[in-house]
Amino acid sequence: MDSLPENVRVELNAKIKENGFGGYKALSDWLVSQGFEIKKTTVAKYGKAFKDRLERLRDATQQAKFLADEFPDDDGSMNDALLRDYQAKLFTAMQDLQIDAKNLDVNKLGKIIGDLSRASVSQKKFAKEFRADMRARAQAGVENGDWEQEAAEQASRIMGFE
Asked: Any idea what DSSP says for residue 148?
């Protein structure tokens, strides 16, 4: 399967999904018609590994969504953890998929990691500015006589704007 060109592998993956992760004899025949002698058992093993990768991705996505929903994150610690997790999973995926580092587009990978890092920094900056704005608004409410000092301090503590 490593010898398949990228465009054939992409089409094979689509066909595997369309066939409900079955019909490997027909897929083997299709590969033969494309000029690749790959046996049904090899296609079936590849299909199983492909399905397993998709399930792991789906599970990871569900876990990330659950964490984001259950544990809102203003200080960026969730993003930091997810970035570290992403990097670890990327390394594991490279090993599992037997991706040769020589064939890896380091520029694209670096851009992805850079984009994630910039997003994390931007999110932290926004959260810091938001907390400062909320503290200022609470203090303005005290100065205008709309709030008592103790209430403003309690609201800031409860909402994490300290």
From this structure: -
Per-residue pLDDT reduced to its tens digit, 53-107: 888 877 777 776 676 666 555 556 666 666 666 666 666 666 666 666 666 676 7
Whole-number Å distance between alpha carbons of 100 and 50? 18
3-state secondary structure of 33: helix
Rg (alpha carbons) of the chain, rounded to whole number: 25
| CA 122 vs CA 71, 90, 112, 116: distances in Å | 19, 23, 15, 10
Residue type, 33: S
- What is the DSSP annotation of 89-133? HHHHHHHHTT--GGGS-HHHHHHHHHHHHHHHHHHHHHHHHHHHH
Give, for 36, the enclosing helix (H) or strand (E).
none
Using a cut of 0.70, tell me whether the model's pTM lies above it: no
Residues 6+ apart with CB under 8 A from 26: 19
